């Protein structure tokens, strides 16, 4: 039982990462029906930004996370304004290809800047408060302080996101644009500002995830965004893309499945199992676990 509970904790930790990234996918898709495949690479950029902030500015973990969120948020808005805004009325395929191009641009740009080698957060850990490296043991179950920080930070960010979406004026505008963009504009809502704000929020969450993953796994490389981004996209689809609760549910489900397959099965097939679950859910419930099937006029 202790081993099982330990794996549940590990699954929740990994699921928190997927959930943070999946939220960015699902918010952008919910607003403008765009699959932003560059989102995983913003997560990667966040990891490197956090690393260099800790290394060069000697800041603690939480100031680093906040500053990284600001930087990646700005990057997300810049990408939207330069790459996506001119294509607002273009065919979806054009925007999708552009998103893939932005993804490769971020990957190769970061490779050119920092090199292709995997880097370690070890030296950054040495500059953070000692409690970050500690762990708590209860009845044979070990919980590292980084796991506690990752889980608690994820929950706090999700609560703040839900508050922004449900209780603020901008959140109300986001919900209006997601339902009917043209009608929202006729009511005086600046759709471009709402879309930019959505990219800001999603990219900030991805940046926070990048820092915590870099520190938790103590490694990062310019291609890490592709792997995490793909799994987070799968999580968003499984939960119901376009739905914030669906992204959270899908993220924790995927994280738990991966950890349990690795612990009790064969780690070599964990990816295959994840995609098999995706296929089964799409066959049984194409809109995702929390999504509703809607008829689309053509």
Describe the structure.
With 298 residues, the chain is an all-alpha fold. The chain has a single domain, classed as ABC transporter involved in vitamin B12 uptake, BtuC. The protein contains twelve helices and two strands; from the N terminus they run H-H-H-H-H-E-E-H-H-H-H-H-H-H. A two-stranded antiparallel ribbon has the order 1-2. A hairpin with a 2-residue loop joins strand 1 and strand 2 (141-144). The mean pLDDT is 86. This is Branched-chain amino acid ABC transporter permease. It is a multi-pass membrane protein. Belongs to the binding-protein-dependent transport system permease family. LivHM subfamily.
What's a quick, concise take on this entry?
With 298 residues, the protein is mainly alpha-helical. The chain is built from twelve helices and two strands, in the order H-H-H-H-H-E-E-H-H-H-H-H-H-H. Strands 1-2 form a two-stranded antiparallel sheet.
Keywords:
298 residues, 74% helix, mainly alpha, ABC transporter involved in vitamin B12 uptake, BtuC
SSE blueprint and pairings:
Blueprint: H1 2-32, H2 39-57, H3 61-84, H4 92-114, H5 122-126, E1 135-138, E2 141-144, H6 145-167, H7 169-179, H8 181-186, H9 191-217, H10 224-239, H11 244-264, H12 270-284
Antiparallel strand pairs: 1-2
Helix pairs in contact: 1-6, 1-9, 1-10, 1-11, 2-3, 2-4, 2-9, 2-10, 3-9, 6-7, 6-9, 7-9, 10-11, 10-12, 11-12
Strand order of the largest sheet: 1-2
Mean model confidence by pLDDT: 86
Helix content: over 70%
- Indicate the overall shape: globular
Number of domains: 1
- Supply the number of helical segments: 12
């Amino acid at each position: 039982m202790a081993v099982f509970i330990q794996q549940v904790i590990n699954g929740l930790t990994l699921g928190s990462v997927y959930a943070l990234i999946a939220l960015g996918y699902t918010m952008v898709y919910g607003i403008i029906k765009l699959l932003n495949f560059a989102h995983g690479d913003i997560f990667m950029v966040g990891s490197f930004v956090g690393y260099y902030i800790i290394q060069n500015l000697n800041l603690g973990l939480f100031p680093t996370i906040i500053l990284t969120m600001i930087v990646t948020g700005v990057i997300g808005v810049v990408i939207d304004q330069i790459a996506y805004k001119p294509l607002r009325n273009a065919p979806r395929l054009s925007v999708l290809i552009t998103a893939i191009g932005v993804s490769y641009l971020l990957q190769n740009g970061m490779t050119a800047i920092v090199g292709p080698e995997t880097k370690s957060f070890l030296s950054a850990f040495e500059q953070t408060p000692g409690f970050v490296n500690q762990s708590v043991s209860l009845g044979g179950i070990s919980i590292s302080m980084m796991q506690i920080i990752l889980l608690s930070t994820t929950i706090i960010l999700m609560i703040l996101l839900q508050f922004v979406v449900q209780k603020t004026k901008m959140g109300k505008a986001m919900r209006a644009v997601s339902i009917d963009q043209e009608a929202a504009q006729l009511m005086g809502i600046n759709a471009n500002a709402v879309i930019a704000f959505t990219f800001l929020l999603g990219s900030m969450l991805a940046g926070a995830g990048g820092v915590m993953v870099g520190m938790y796994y103590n490694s990062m490389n310019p291609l890490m965004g592709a792997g995490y981004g793909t799994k987070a996209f799968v999580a968003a689809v499984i939960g119901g893309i376009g739905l914030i609760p669906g992204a959270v549910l899908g993220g924790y489900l995927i994280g738990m499945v991966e950890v349990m397959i690795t612990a009790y099965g064969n780690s070599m097939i964990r990816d295959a199992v994840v995609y098999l679950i995706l296929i089964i859910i799409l066959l049984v419930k194409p809109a995702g676990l929390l999504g509703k099937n809607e008829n689309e006029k053509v």
